[in-house]
Amino acid sequence: MPALTNDDLAKVLEDVVKQLVDVFREQQVQTLQAATSQRAKFEYEMLQHRPELEVLVMSSESTGNYVLFALPLLGEKPQWDPKNLIEAEDLDSVYIPDGFHAPNFSVTTNGLTIFIGYPMKEEAKSDAAWPLLVEWPARMLLSSQVTQTPPSSKGQSSVELIASCKKMFLQQWRRRKDFIAELRRHVIVLEYDAVDFSQVFFMLQEQLNDQAPLRILVLQLQFTAAFFLTNCMSDLQVVLLDGEADTAPVPVALAASSTPPSPDPIAHSQTCASQFLESTRKSLLRHLYGE
C-alpha cells in the first residue's frame, strides 16, 4: 500500500471532521425533536430548508434548556466580483456604491449571523427573555449601533424576526449607501467603506474669489450613531486632512441643521447630500478665511 501524501492526509482528516460535524448536527436535531415544546419544533420546521442553518441545544439558569438557531441574516452571501462586473456592466460601475445591494463581504469577512432561541419545554413560563441577537462583523460597528432589533424572540416567529431585523438593518445601511452615491455626483470621492458605508474620503475645490488661490481640500466624513437618532448635521464627524502623517486632522464643525424625512429615499439622499456640502463649505470658509 503506497504511503499517503500530505494532501491525502489532509483530505482524510477533512472527511473525518465533516463526518463528526454531520453526526453532531444530527444529534442536535434529534434532541430537538424529542423536546416537549411544540413552538421550538414548529420554528425548526419553518427554518430547516434555509441554507447554512445551524441548530444548537443549550442550557442556561434563566431559561433552562433551549434550542438556538443560527443562520445568515441576509440569506446566501452576496457575490460581488469586480472582474465580472467590468465584463457585464460599465467600467465606472465598479467604483460607485449604486451596484451594492448588500454589504460587500469578501471571503475573509464574516457575514451577518442571527441567533434565535426557543425553550425546549412546553411548560416553560419563565419571564426571562428568549435569546435573540445578531452577531456583527468587526467592520460593521456602526450598523450594530444603529440597527434596532427586538429584545426577545418570544413575541414573533423566527421568519418574522429574520425579516424584521433584515429590514431594519438594510434601511439604515441603504441610507448611508445612497448618501455616498449622491455625494459622488457632486465631489470627487477618493475612498469609501464598501462594507458598512460608515465613512467616505472626498475632495473639494474651494476659492474665496477670483483673486484668491484655488484650494484643493481632502476631507473625511464619518457617520455616527447619534446622527441616525437626531438627523442633525452637527452630529456628523468631518475632518480636514492635509496629507502629512505627523499632522492631526482638523475637525470641521457643521451647523445644527436637519433634513425632514421623505417617503422617497433617493430624494431624501439628494437633499441630505446637498445640505451636507453646503454646511461643509460654509464651515471651511470660516476655518480658512475667518468668515
Features:
five-stranded antiparallel beta sheet, 291 residues, alpha+beta, 2 domains, Ubiquitin Conjugating Enzyme
Rg value: 25 Å
Approximate shape: elongated
Strand order of the largest sheet: 5-6-7-8-9
How would a crystallographer describe the biggest sheet? 5 strands, antiparallel
- Please tell me the total number of domains: 2
Order of helices and strands: HHEEHEEHHEEEHEEH
Q: How many DSSP helices?
A: 7
Summarize the SSE layout with pairings.
Layout: H1 6-33, H2 38-47, E1 54-60, E2 64-72, H3 82-88, E3 113-119, E4 132-135, H4 141-146, H5 158-184, E5 188-192, E6 199-206, E7 215-222, H6 225-230, E8 237-241, E9 250-251, H7 265-289
Antiparallel strand pairs: 1-2, 2-3, 3-4, 5-6, 6-7, 7-8, 8-9
Helix pairs in contact: 5-7
Keywords: Apoptosis, Cell cycle, Cell division, Chromatin regulator, Cytoplasm, DNA damage, DNA repair, Mitosis, Nucleus, Repeat, Ubl conjugation pathway
InterPro entries: BRE
Protein name: BRISC and BRCA1-A complex member 2
Structure description:
The protein is built from seven helices and nine strands, in the order H-H-E-E-H-E-E-H-H-E-E-E-H-E-E-H. The chain is of the alpha+beta class. Strands 5-6-7-8-9 form a five-stranded antiparallel sheet, with helices on one face. It comes from Phytophthora nicotianae CJ01A1.
A few lines on this structure:
Belongs to the BABAM2 family. The protein has seven helices and nine strands; from the N terminus they run ααββαββααβββαββα. The chain is an alpha+beta fold and 291 residues long.
